[in-house]
Write a structure and sequence with these properties.
165 residues
């Protein structure tokens, strides 16, 4: 088996080492710095990205805490607004009830006054009617009494006696 790849000769090994050395020198001189520089830049970019991600995570946590605080504050304000609205509603109902009571009392008092007024008016009208009826009855009685001349004279005399003090 004389395969040169499996058992290379001394010259091939020498030239392979020289070629590898030249390649290693060229890579060390111009390749490694570029590769190391890009690796450093990549490492720095990754590091910056991780720091930015940590920063963003902290900001998100702070924002979440602030949002929770705002939510709690909004709930407290909502509860306070609802409580105030409920109290205002109750106050409005109470005011309306008080006004209605006052108005009802006023209406009842006006009705009583109207009833008393109408009662007095009816009594006055009744007295006037009784007086008119009494006068008519008295007229009729006096006419019947005075139809006879002698009775009329006696009646006038009797009335004059009664009228004197």
């Amino acid at each position: 088996m004389n395969n040169p790849l499996v058992s290379p000769g001394l010259g091939v090994i020498f030239w392979m080492i020289v070629a590898f050395g030249i390649l290693a020198f060229i890579l060390m001189k111009w390749g490694w710095p570029v590769i190391l520089k890009s690796l450093d830049e990549r490492e720095k970019a990754i590091s910056d990205s991780l720091e930015a991600a940590d920063k963003m995570k902290k900001e998100m946590e702070n924002l979440q805490v602030k949002n929770e605080e705002l939510l709690k504050e909004a709930k407290v304000q909502r509860d306070e607004i609802l409580r105030n609205a409920r109290l205002a509603g109750e106050q409005i109902v109470e005011d309306a009830r008080a006004k209605a009571t006052v108005e009802a009392d006023r209406i009842v008092e006006n009705a009583r006054e109207n009833i008393n007024y109408e009662k007095l008016k009816a009594m006055h009208d009744l007295k006037n009617q009784i007086a008119n009826l009494s006068i008519e009855i008295a007229e009729k009685l006096i006419k019947s009494e005075l139809e006879d001349k002698q009775k009329a004279t006696e009646f006038v005399a009797k009335e004059l006696e009664d009228a004197q003090f």
